[in-house]
Write a structure and sequence with these properties.
Number of strands: 11
Shape: globular
Strand order of the largest sheet: 1-2-9-6-5-3-4
Structural class: alpha/beta
CATH architecture of the largest domain: Up-down Bundle
Number of domains: 2
Bound molecules: nicotinamide-adenine-dinucleotide, zinc ion
Radius of gyration: 20 Å
Largest sheet: 7 strands, mixed
CATH class of the largest domain: Mainly Alpha
CATH superfamily of the largest domain: Dehydroquinate synthase-like - alpha domain
Distance between the termini: 47 Å
Amino acid sequence: MKKISIETGRPYEMVIGSGLLENAAGYILDMTGPCHAALVTDSNVAGLYAGTVSEVLSDAGFDVTLIEFPAGEENKDLESYGAIIEQIARAGLSRSDVVIALGGGVTGDMAGFAAATYLRGIRYVQIPTTYLAAVDSSVGGKTAVDLGKGKNLCGAFWQPSLVLCDYSTFRTLSPSEMLDGSAESYKSAMIGDMELAAPVKEIMTEIRESGGELTESVYDKLEVVIERSVTVKKSVVEKDERDTGERQLLNFGHTFGHSIEKLSDYAIPHGHAVARGMVCEARAAFAMGLCDFDAAGKIESDLAGMGFDLDVPYSAEKILEYAKNDKKVRTDDVTVVVPEAPGKCGLRKIPLEELEGYIEAGLPKQ
Ligand SMILES: NC(=O)c1ccc[n+]([C@@H]2O[C@H](COP(=O)([O-])OP(=O)(O)OC[C@H]3O[C@@H](n4cnc5c(N)ncnc54)[C@H](O)[C@@H]3O)[C@@H](O)[C@H]2O)c1
Ligand SMILES: [Zn+2]
């Protein structure tokens, strides 16, 4: 078991281990005392893990209201958010109660946004059940839902009060969902800890060799990868909680990635889109002379080796349209992330009119 302290304005802990779901009540009780808990989960995770969490909470003296929404990025929207927050209100939660997000990044982002906005903010706990949520979205306090115009356009910064990561829940993820998490961990390696790349790749090789099963060796590596990925994210978020500077490093792969995800109507999931985005952005950065380090070839071969499809079946024009809507595009310039050395990225500003050229330079040559 590992513990990481995240020293944001309101500090909190992430606990990483196997079998934590069964002990979740104890951790939450230490923080809140017995209270009313709104347990928010999606329609897939409801049947897998909500029963256990709900039971241990009830046994520990919590009042539990289970709130379920239909799974999938296409439901990370105002409608599901509205339904969740209405149910929280109907259950009568007060400021001394707690929201618990049990699920992947979609659940965490949306339940976190409900917690951020209900009564102008109540405490919430993240219990990530996907690899992606464990290494990335459960930490850092970005909460949001998507709007028609683009991803995460309606949201708030609201840090969780506790993150409980039980990686034994990954046993029910598909290899493709494990790849989603690998993309964000590989991103952490690129921006802050190149040694992390080796275990990230080994996890996917071992999963392939075992026919999809998570072996003891995979679990051991997962614990290391989650801890190190979150340590990279923590160091960035602690310096720039509200994303005005250095935190934008975490967007490596996301200028292209968010556009690809949206253009595919979410058929290409977040991590798979970010993987393509990292290759494109490394290629564009070098081609445009924004950095001296030509990282694209290595990123491409590492990601292809892990099993990613890196095809980008969209035109520069289409990608540009969405990239311009992306929240991080300021009026007259755009910040892009460029690889500077193995395990080190930097930020560059390019004029908005150069964004199209940047996107063209990043796309794979047919
Ligand atoms: N807030 C942040 O800082 C941040 C960072 C990265 C990504 N994100 C967001 O995270 C989202 C992607 O997260 P995700 O990949 O976890 O998606 P997700 O929450 O949709 O989960 C992927 C799928 O796995 C299912 N699932 C979850 N846990 C499971 C389990 N243990 N066993 C079987 N199935 C399970 C879900 O029902 C879903 O179908 C995107 O919306 C992205 O924008 C946010
Ligand atoms: Zn991401």
